[in-house]
Design goal:
Immunoglobulin-like, four-stranded antiparallel sheet, 8 strands
């Protein structure tokens, strides 16, 4: 199977998203994408996000992942190596994905999104009758 790039949305935002969104206020979650004959599987690391504060949205072929960090740490801050900021990332999906059959699992800060390919996009074996 040949490697393919899934385009990542960076510069422009689709209609309806906040025009004032500042990229420095968000982290891009690390993502791995796997392809099989039947589906694409996306795994995204979003530590600190809970299921209730995770939004997965698909509109006009654009997949948007948004995770919000809630709650503050108690006590006086003495040293900081990372900031608690929200996650945001977008991908342009291939047309062969069937969004109605997509499923998501979120466990221990890792999102696993399974997106089946449409039946027309799957490889088919043609049987020889005679």
């Amino acid at each position: 199977m040949a490697e393919r790039e899934i385009p990542v949305r960076r510069e422009s935002t689709p209609a309806g998203l906040e025009e004032v969104r500042r990229p420095e206020n968000y982290l891009r979650p690390a993502v791995d994408i796997f392809e099989t004959e039947d589906n694409l599987t996306l795994m995204a690391d979003m530590p600190g996000v809970t299921k209730d504060h995770l939004d997965i949205h698909l509109e006009q072929g654009i997949l948007t992942l948004r995770g919000t960090i809630e709650g503050a740490r108690s006590g006086e801050l003495l040293f900081r190596e990372f900031a608690l900021v929200d996650y945001y990332r977008q991908f342009k999906l291939p047309q062969e994905i069937d969004p109605d059959k997509a499923s998501a699992d979120f466990k221990n800060g890792v999102l696993t999104l399974t997106m089946p390919k449409s039946a027309a996009a799957r490889p088919k074996r043609i049987e020889i009758r005679h």
